[in-house]
Design goal:
The protein is 33% helix and 21% strand. It is α/β, with parallel strands linked by helices. The protein has one domain: TIM Barrel (Alpha-Beta Barrel), CATH 3.20.20. The strands form two sheets. An eight-stranded parallel β-barrel has the order 1-2-3-4-5-6-7-8. The radius of gyration is 16 Å and the shape is globular.
């Protein structure tokens, strides 16, 4: 089985980005939503991204971003992957996917329908927990059953929402995602990663990967 990838979101500084690189994570996320406590200026993000190993995928996170804004920020920071929260349509995602890797984010609220993911065939899908004000980084757990169902409608599923070193193994076993995403679960404060907790999270995912390959379901 293909190992579950690891995405660390809410990166705001070189120290945390370096820790992610040294641990061999697959993706790191930079939040360009100004309403977020983890917002990072594009010029700061660019300097951090330039120092990352090329094999790490830098992801730019937007909420209700306009296509022009998304493209401009991607070009100025050097990211080739964008994560879109809010009300971005399938047509806009398909348009952006001609130039960039697109991750369409959904909240597993009462209105969420797993089959909706099939409308975004040009995008990867990220599932997070619903919150009335925040877009990610809430520490709330998303609906794992809905995520498991969504897996069959998405080309690449990223599970987010309330993941920690304590529950990520169970989440992987339950949902079978392509990747897991963590933000607040490895932080000492918003935008500041706790490196020991980060290391423990990565180890927990790798242990789960080993278990899946050694004892496939």
């Amino acid at each position: 089985m293909t190992p579950v990838q690891i995405k660390i979101c809410g990166i705001t500084n070189n120290k945390d980005a370096t820790a992610c690189a040294e641990l061999g994570v697959d993706m790191v996320g930079f939040n360009f939503y100004t309403g977020s406590s983890r917002y990072v200026e594009p010029n700061v993000a660019r300097r951090i991204i330039e120092a990352l190993p090329p094999e790490i995928c830098a992801v730019a996170v937007f909420v209700d971003g306009r296509s022009e804004e998304i493209r401009n920020t991607a070009n100025s920071t050097g990211v080739r992957c964008v994560q879109l929260h809010g009300h971005t349509s399938p047509d806009i995602c398909a348009e952006l996917a001609r130039e960039l890797r697109v991750i369409r984010a959904f909240s597993t609220d009462a209105q969420f329908q797993p089959e909706e993911a099939s409308l975004f065939g040009d995008s990867d899908v990220l599932l997070d927990a619903p919150h009335p004000d925040l877009r990610g980084g809430t520490g709330l757990t998303c609906d794992w059953l809905a995520a498991r169902i969504t897996r069959s409608f998405a080309r690449f599923l990223i599970l987010s929402g309330g993941l920690t070193e304590q529950n990520v193994s169970e989440a992987i076993a339950t949902v079978a995602p392509n990747a897991v995403d963590v933000c607040s679960g490895v932080e000492s404060a918003p935008g500041i990663k706790d490196h020991k907790t980060l290391e423990n999270f990565v180890l927990a995912v790798r242990t789960a990967n080993f278990s899946m390959n050694a004892f496939p379901a």
